[in-house]
């Protein structure tokens, strides 16, 4: 239990810090007044002031914020923030809304950029230290989709649906979410390359975290786990692997949200802080490198989630800025406040739903 609690605090704390530092550094770079940097929401637990900025830890550890003066949606977001000093202030050239469009775009997008940068560096470090197993097939189940497609032992998977792959984990992750959907594999064997199409079948397995039977895709192959398929990576190769892993996870998370909207994935699959905590504990018990790899995955999830075009999230702010760029004038304050209120309700509802899913998994419902 203690390991799970500490691992959860580490994972969420570091990733929230990374995200908010992106906003903070970018705001400082373009001379926006930052009155508060908070890890968590709600009442202040501990903090200190340096210069114009108050640095605090707040009571609800479910996110964080950088309070920049002069943002039109402050009235809504202030409900999640701790109390301010209540002093009235005059508009200033250092206000967020007083800055040019490019500067505001930079500040809003910097949090997501930092999460992706963290993921890239973490994946690269894991690849450099752990190496990779190439996706060399060692056995094919008789009668499986792979067998029907003519895949044989010794085949090397080069790409999946046009996406280059360098490890067995990448191949497995893509196929995992493609049950019942055609997948095109580029295969290399003894110098010759060919393309085959397979349809992963629906496999079912009990998941300890979900406390339920989960369904996933399989094609009926096993990958070589011997030294012959193992590769150590130099720094350049590890950076390439880290970049490929980051982009692969971005696509996977984005595809999940798209399928959630279209009804192909169930809302019951959404997990909240409790699920993250359980997985953090499992990763921590497996060792430092699995924990760092898990943190990279969660960092990508946070980046993609924050890019959803929902007011309150970074993606909503970027949507407003995009409309301003097209129209040549900003969305009115009244409209921004109205849409931000709707976005706030949606995000709070999403959080409640994720918590409910976590609790239902625990009780086995």
Descriptive notes:
Among the domains are: 2-31 and 92-126 and 303-363, no CATH class; 132-231, Pdz3 Domain (Roll), CATH 2.30.42. Helix 1 (2-29) packs across helix 3 (101-130), helix 1 (2-29) crosses helix 7 (273-286) and helix 3 packs antiparallel against helix 8. The protein has helices at residues 2-29, 74-77, 101-130, 145-148, 168-176, 235-262, 273-286, 288-306, 314-327, 333-363; strands at residues 34-50, 53-68, 132-133, 137-140, 156-160, 163-164, 183-189, 192-198, 201-207, 212-218, 221-223, 230-231. The chain is built from 10 helices and 12 strands. A hairpin with a 4-residue loop joins strand 9 and strand 10. It starts with a helix and ends with a helix. The strands form 5 sheets. The protein has a 4-stranded antiparallel β-sheet.
Secondary structure blueprint with pairings:
Elements: H1 2-29, E1 34-50, E2 53-68, H2 74-77, H3 101-130, E3 132-133, E4 137-140, H4 145-148, E5 156-160, E6 163-164, H5 168-176, E7 183-189, E8 192-198, E9 201-207, E10 212-218, E11 221-223, E12 230-231, H6 235-262, H7 273-286, H8 288-306, H9 314-327, H10 333-363
Antiparallel strand pairs: 1-2, 3-12, 4-11, 5-6, 5-7, 7-8, 9-10
State which percent range the strand residues make up: 15-25%
What topology, given as strand order, has the largest sheet?
6-5-7-8
Q: What kind of oligomer do you see?
A: single chain
Total number of helical segments? 10
Radius of gyration: 23 Å
| Average pLDDT metric | 85
Write down the secondary-structure element order: HEEHHEEHEEHEEEEEEHHHHH
